[in-house]
Structure formats: C-alpha cells, structure tokens
Write a structure and sequence with these properties.
The complex is a heterodimer. Chain A is mostly helical. Chain A has 14 helices and two strands. A two-stranded parallel ribbon of chain A has the order 1-2. By secondary structure, chain B is α/β, with parallel strands linked by helices. Chain B has two domains: about 140 residues, Rossmann fold (3-Layer(aba) Sandwich); about 60 residues, no CATH class. The chains are: A mainly alpha, B alpha/beta. Chains A and B meet through α1 and α6 of A and loops of B.
Chain lengths: ~280, ~210
Amino acid sequence: MKQIYYTWRTYLNNIRHIRLLYFTIVIVVFLVRYNKLLLQYAADMDYPVTVWVFPFLMSSFSFLVLFYFLFIYINTDIPFMQRVQMYQILRMGRKRWIFGQIGYLLLRSLTMVLITFFCSVAVLLPHGELGAGWGKLIQTAALTGAQYEYSFAYFFFKEAFIEFTPLQLLLLTIIICTLITMLISMAMLVICLYTNRIAAVSFAVANVILLFVVNNIHPRMRMQMSRFVPACWAEVARVSTPDHNFYWLPSVSYMLTFLIIAILICSVLAVRKINTIEFHWEDDL
Amino acid sequence: MQIMMIEINNLVKAFKDNRVLNEVTIRCCPGKIYGIVGYNGSGKTVLFKCILGFLKPTSGEILVDGKQIGKDLDMLTSAGAIIEEPSFLKNKTAYQNLLFLYRLRNKPNKNHIIRVLETVGLDPKLKRHVGKFSLGMKQRLAIAQAIMEEPEILILDEPMNGLDKNGIKQMRELFLQMKSEEKTILLASHNKEDIDVLCDEVYEMDKGVLTQIR
C-alpha cells in the first residue's frame, strides 16, 4: 500500500510541471495546423468529421517526430537525482524508491498519450461528431482519394476501418503508444544509471532517427527493420495496410510481447543498478 | 559496557584518486551529541552520506545497531537527517511536504505534524508554498522532517544554517531535549558556540582524518 501511495503521490507531485504545459500547448498548436485541410474538406462537404482521428494522427511521420521530441524534452528529469528526492529515498530505501519512479514513468507516459488524444478530440469537437463509428467523411476521404487531393497532413487507411472499430483502434493505439514511451523512458533511465544523461538522450534521439530510416527505406527492408524499432509501432493504425504489397509492421501480439518483455528487462536492470549506485544530488529542475 | 548505536571502523572513501575519508573510526552511544568540526571540503558531509547509505565506502565498515550499512541495510532509513541544502516540493506548503514524507513510513497523523511544525517555530496553517520560504524557514522545515518520526539517530549537517538568534536557541533546546531522550546525535557545525553548548564529544575532520579533540 505504501508503494502504491508513494507512486501515486510522486505522479501527482511531479505531473503538474511547466514542461507538460509546454507539451500541451505545442501539441494543440500543431493539431490546429494538422487538421486545417481536413476541416476545409469537412466544410466543403458540409458534413461533420469524426473526432476519433488519434490513431491516424500517430501514423503521421512528422507528427510522430514532434511527439517523440516533446516526449524526450519531458524526460529531461530522468534519472530523478534531484535533491528533493533525498528525504524520500531515505524513507523508502533504494528498491522501493526505484519501483516508485518506474510506476511514475508508466503513469507519465500514459498521461502524455492521453493528453495528445484529448487534444486531438478537442480541436475537432466544434466541427465534429461523437458517433461510435468512423463517420462517413473520413471513410469517403480514404476511399475516394480526396485526402490526397486536399493534401491532408495525415491520412486515413481504409483497411483500418474494416479491421477495427474506433474504440478498438483508439484503445490499441493508446496502449501501444504508452508502452513505447514507457520503454523509451525506462531505457533512458537504465542508460542514465549505467552511463550518463547525454547517452540516454542520444539513445532517445536515435530512436527518432531510426523512425526516419524505417519510413524511408525499401518496403522489404522496412518489414525486417521495423521488428526492432518500437518507435514506429505507434503507426499501429496501418498494421493492416500494405505498402507496395508488404505489411511492414509486425503483428500486434508481437508488439505487445516485445514491449512488455523489454520494459521488464529494463526494470530489472534499473533495480540491480540502484542497489549499488551512489547518490550525487542535482539541483531541482 | 555502553551500547554502541553507531560504530564506524577504518572507513575509507575515495573518489577516483582522491581519498576524502581516511581510516575514520568513531563510536557513538545513545544519549550523547557528537560534534564534528572541520573546514569546508574536509569530508564531514561525505562521512554523513556514507553513514546514511547515499555513498558506498571504499573500505571499512559502518555498523548501526549491529547492522552493516551496505550489507544488512541498504540505507539508514531509521535515521533523521539534514545534509546539504534543504529541498522540498516547491509548490506545496510546509504541512503538505511533511505529511507526504511522514506517510511514506507511517499512518497519517495530522495532529503530530502540526505539533512538529509548532516545535520548530513554523505556522502549520501557513498557506505559503515552500518555494517562497526564506533559508531560515526551509532550515526549520528540514529540522522538522528530521525529527518528526522520532528517530533514534539524528545526522545533522549544519542544522543552524540560516537561523536567527531565537531559532538557534530553540533548536539547541530541542537537540538537548532529544539527547535526554537517549537519541544518538551527530552534528557538524562551523559555529564554535553550538559545539561548546551541545556536544559531549568533539571530533575534528582534517583532510579526511577524524581526530577527537574533546
């Protein structure tokens, strides 16, 4: 119970940070830009647009890059060696303290993904519909190619409409994106603990670079490479969409298994290291 | 034979080639205040951090109530401590900060937190966030967090830092009171008067070597 209390309080104490406000503002500004042409299309068709666009937004390479860089910015407080932690570690002990930080990373990852999701809904809400289905507008845009004529900033995949309901794809995208950001956060924590923060940030940036590589290589190679680049799995909405006849994303079960096992491995490494580490406090951010 | 609460034997702490603590040996019993004096950078804070478990000794041992830090205990979670600059959650009040820390090990006891804040001269109802506290107020809060769980051991690094005359007098009375309650107190200070008034035994730290001078 004390562990759950500590994890939850750590989350509440830290989540109301100015960096998260900046994250939200930037996301909203870009969402307004990204949805401009979609809304133009909706106005031309005189038809409301569904607000459940989040999975397709996360399949946009440029938006994903923005999201990941903002996420790296949020993670600049890893490995949590700020002086304010001193009295907490003294009371919790090393192991329980690191479990608390791991729990906090999970909650923070989920928060960032949910903020992005709710902002994507909020931006479209004045012009949108809250129905349980995909809505006629984006299906028409996908089937007729209107999304290319209007040069949408992100695209809709007709295969996704057949494969998933909005709720299914939304939940799947939220879970996968949370696990991806959690994994990158945990990897940053482990790298920080074993080496330094520069190496950790470099690793996180390398993930974004790999995302670029995966999106721009030959589809056959993309299929092989994507199995080892979790950052690109945020594009889960296109899991059933072939690219030049290649289904380049791994299966959902592969993604979930990989992510959970990798997070567990990082957790074990973090707990092992925290038992031997020396605490040199930093100034509070 | 006196019960040793803290026993440090031939403690060495080195950072790369720099030996900060050099075969430090000290034995501390309950019901006494041990003063450690020394110039800045002499190793006092490093010694305290080793006792608390924040740093790992290069060699030697630290035993607290018979248990070895780093082997039987990973951290001295039963001690109250003030080391380095006091740091709390900036956008919370003093009361909220203490309640959060107190609940990490204990069931919530709001009246106790209120009493502790009053003991150190802080208003429990003060709505001001700790981020807007003066140094003296932060120091009082640091003392409050160190004593609130009534620990058997107190590790105090410059506890009077930033306190006014009244505050110093209050805290001296508090520490003497705690000594009479058979607590083991290690105190580092640059203030000769604090050392003279409070300490039963005084040690000097010079280039990592600890020598008893009283």
